[in-house]
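My current task is to audit a protein record that another person submitted. Alongside the sequence sits a line of tokens, each denoting a local backbone shape. Please read both lines and tell me whether the tokens look consistent with the sequence. Do not assume that whoever made the record got everything right. Thanks in advance; the entry in question is below.
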Amino acid sequence: MALSLEDVVGDVRGFLSAVFTGLNEAALQPSADDLFCDHLCYRVETEEAYQQKKNQLSELATLLHEAIIGGRLVATYKLKQPVAFGDRRIPCIELPAPKPGLEHIELVIKESFESFMARNAHLSFDTKAMAKGINPDIQLSIPPGYSVKFHHMPLEEVVEMEKAMDAAASSKS
């Protein structure tokens, strides 16, 4: 029997339903329904689980990039079959080590963070990653412990940019 994404990471649709319900209840503007969800994030607890999930995901997806980000390995995959959730098609999954469970999604916004936050002044955004050099973001917590990150570039584009930067740095050495 073929492996499914749910076999690997659990109840994806339940997770997405909880996150988007939370966003709708928060009255996010523009509506989360109007934003592109570029990836899911699934965390693991141990290095062994990280390797196991990487092996399983390799049956369902193509590894775009694996790098140390924030002091831990993060593997980014392009799913062979995007996650279908309503009208959405979510193309990628991120696998960082080491925390277990589905944790966040990221949505691409087309306006500045300042404009987006002003339009959503009734919400409390975490802005600590807003000044990151590569792919800055703002974050919103959604009960029961999920988060939604908002950024300007789809994950695949960020990965390609990082690979190009790595290649340029390697050629200078």
Residues 5-171 form a domain with the 2,3-Dihydroxybiphenyl 1,2-Dioxygenase; domain 1 fold (CATH 3.10.180.10).
